[in-house]
């Protein structure tokens, strides 16, 4: 798996050079601008509402009154840390749904960019094929909904686990790796569709090569330092990574 993560990381570095060489900047800026605006607006409203969720959980469990009664600095520290872990899990839970919304809305652009990247790599002219593009969009949207369902189940379990002091502190790390895997999976599937993989074959292949998906997803998260670059870089890097595996 480590070797595949390295391949995914190399794909992102190659994507930077690939974009410059083939002047794909418009495919970075347009979807990237839309993604950035939606992300900032969504995160602003979510961060405000998450305070209410944490306060409600605390009131339901009677944590505040119990801590005031005990007057223990150690217990207060434990529950402050637990609250932080819960907040991080909720942020990832929100980001998970936001990510799948973007994957579904942006699937035409992602499918087209993946096809165009492959055509350039193989040295052939890219011809726009709407029926094929539509087929890829429907397939990836269904896969995104499938992944969203499974990831939601796992995240709900992690939210419950995050309420456990000390043990729950590891949950954000688990949630982050899970996020990386499922996002990278969606980026890779555009290539698997063109290779003739059925959805089940795509699921099976990604399960055997988790490093490709995790590596792509990890760098997607790191690219949020420069939000506008993240989505298009992810799809180009995924295509380059799959080409390397094919070779």
Characteristic terms for this protein:
247 residues, 85% helix, elongated
Report on this model:
- The protein is 85% helix and 0% strand.
- With 247 residues, it is mainly alpha-helical.
- It has one domain (2-47, 83-246).
- The relative contact order is 0.18.
Topology:
Elements: H1 2-21, H2 25-61, H3 63-70, H4 73-105, H5 107-121, H6 130-162, H7 171-194, H8 199-208, H9 210-222, H10 230-246
Helix pairs in contact: 1-9, 1-10, 2-4, 2-10, 4-6, 4-7, 5-6, 5-7, 5-10, 6-7, 7-8, 7-9, 7-10, 9-10
Task: Kindly summarize this structure in a few lines.
The protein is mainly α. It has helices at 2-21, 25-61, 63-70, 73-105, 107-121, 130-162, 171-194, 199-208, 210-222, 230-246. It has one domain.
Number of domains in the coordinates?
1
Helical fraction equals over 70%
Average pLDDT number? 78
How many whole angstroms does the radius of gyration measure? Answer: 20 Å
Uncertain runs are none
- Could you give the order of the helices and strands? HHHHHHHHHH
Shape, per Cα inertia axes = elongated
């Amino acid at each position: 798996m480590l070797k595949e993560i390295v391949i995914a990381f190399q794909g992102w570095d190659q994507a930077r050079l690939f974009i410059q060489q083939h002047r794909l900047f418009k495919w970075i800026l347009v979807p990237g601008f839309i993604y950035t605006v939606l992300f900032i607006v969504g995160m602003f409203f979510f961060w405000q509402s998450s305070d209410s969720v944490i306060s409600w959980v605390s009131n339901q469990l009677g944590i505040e009154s119990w801590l005031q009664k005990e007057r223990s600095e150690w217990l207060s520290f434990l529950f402050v840390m637990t609250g932080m872990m819960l907040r991080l899990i909720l942020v990832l839970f929100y980001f998970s749904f936001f990510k799948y919304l973007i994957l579904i809305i942006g699937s035409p652009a992602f499918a087209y960019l993946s096809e165009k990247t492959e055509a350039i790599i193989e040295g052939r002219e890219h011809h726009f094929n709407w029926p094929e593009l539509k087929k890829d969009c429907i397939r990836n949207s269904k896969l995104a909904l499938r992944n969203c369902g499974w990831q939601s189940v796992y995240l709900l379990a992690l939210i419950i686990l995050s309420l456990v002091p000390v043990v729950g502190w590891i949950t954000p790390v688990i949630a982050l790796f899970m996020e990386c895997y499922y996002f990278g999976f969606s980026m890779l599937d555009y290539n698997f569709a063109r290779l003739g993989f059925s959805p089940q074959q795509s699921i099976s292949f990604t399960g055997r090569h988790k490093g490709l998906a995790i590596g792509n997803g990890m760098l997607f998260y790191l690219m949020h330092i420069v939000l506008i670059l993240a989505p298009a870089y992810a799809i180009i890097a995924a295509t380059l990574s799959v080409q390397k595996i094919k070779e």
